[in-house]
Predict the structure.
Amino acid sequence: MLNRLKQILEMIRFSHTLFALPPAMLAAVMAWTRSGESGPLETRRVVQELVGILLCMVAARSAAMAFNRIADRRIDAENPRTEMRHIPAGRLSVFSVALFTIACCVAFVAATCLFLPNRLPLMLSVPVLLVLFLYSYTKRFTALAHFWLGLSLMLAPVCAWIAIRGQVVMTDVTDLLPAVVLGGAIMLWVAGFDMIYACQDVAVDIKAGLHSIPVRLGVAGALRLAAVCHLAMIALLAVLPLVYPPLSWIYGAGIAAIAALLIYEHALVRPDDLTRVNTAFFNVNAIVSIGLFVIGSVDLFFG
């Protein structure tokens, strides 16, 4: 059983949770900072909310990835790049992965009840899971699937904010604006790097009748649109201090560094050379995600 769980965690690339977790944690730090303006926060409450957000993030992301592997198992089997994934290769059964998916869904909903004090997370738990699961089918009918993936990760900072400030949001929806701006930047970032990643599968997607920006616009067009998305991401991050004034010059310096990293990411990939896509996708984006959280948190705690 432990070996099967290890293989499932390998299949869903559990370590890549760091793509979604840091933006959620930055939103949490921002929400705690705003809540602390009206008085000191209770340590017990902060710890409880932190545990709840971590459990929800890990459970939701794990459920979505496992469901995606089930939904895409036949597509993966026809793609030389993915044919050795665990389900197509026969290392894991659909039944065992489905049980894992259900367990993660139950854990996600339970965490909203046990650790998050306001009722909005529980009310939104099933709709959030539906958004995550529906992504797995979007490429079957629309080239905008990359933006649906971006929407899925946009939910991370928005939901973290709601988990902490849900009572305020229910009476004043404009309180959610900082999380929406941060989430919008995350959506554009994810959509952009997913377009870059999808450039590897253009021929396979065309043969399978799947939709993507590289299929629709070609590799060169997809790389240009990805660059536009990342430029818009930087613009939204630059706007964030206008709706969340506690952020200062430290955050601004961090955004400049992130812009430089994204320029480097795009320099790694060319229409006639996709050999460094994995470097751009995994290494650079991990630094962007963690760096955004670290810089924002340092600014709010010590700026």
User: Anything to note?
Assistant: Residues 185 and 233 are 4 Å apart (CA to CA).
